[in-house]
Amino acid sequence: MTDTCGEDTHRPYGGGTRARPGRREQTRSALLTAAERLWAERGIHGASLDDIAAAAGLTKGAVYSNFAGKTDLLLALMERFTADRNTDVCEELRAAEEDTDHTGRSSPRHDTDDRPRRLALLLVEFWLYGMRDYAAGWRIADWYAERRAQMASELDPTDEIAPDDRATLTLALDMGLALQHLLDPTRVRTDLYKTGKTLILHSSP
Fold this sequence. Notes:
Elements lengths: L20 H22 L6 H7 L4 H5 L5 H14 L7 H7 L17 H18 L1 H20 L9 H21 L7 H11 L4
Helix pairs in contact: 1-2, 1-4, 1-6, 6-7, 7-8, 8-9
């Protein structure tokens, strides 16, 4: 899952003394972690910047010294997902693609990490936020466009489907199947991911 988004969110908003880089990064990380947890639990409109600051053990002023507002914080959180290769809403699906028996079915996986579910909730929240806020919607759309472009650049060319279209279909498979599987893991099997990728990417099973 590759991408980056929008404008530079690392500049402090407004005036004031610039914090030391180490301390500043700790503050930003604490705010992003709190936002990730609260927005997944309550939704973006259900957790205010005050709530996020309090959960991080900071003041609301700390939020505005690091982010221009809620949308800026949201985009920075999406950037963090991009930079962290170990966080992926499709992680269980990708693992199942490499863990199949002779019948082509994946072995059951019992992962106690709730991060994929939390990420799925957040991605739905991001989409809803972008649909309701025109300005934020364009920036979130750009984030997805960059992910598709990066994915397309890594695909081998074919005569049937353009790389950009294949990337769009692959991302739709990633997101759609992951959301369905997390909600209904028994009836939406992980081995369907490998089948879908084979159909879209024309790769060998």
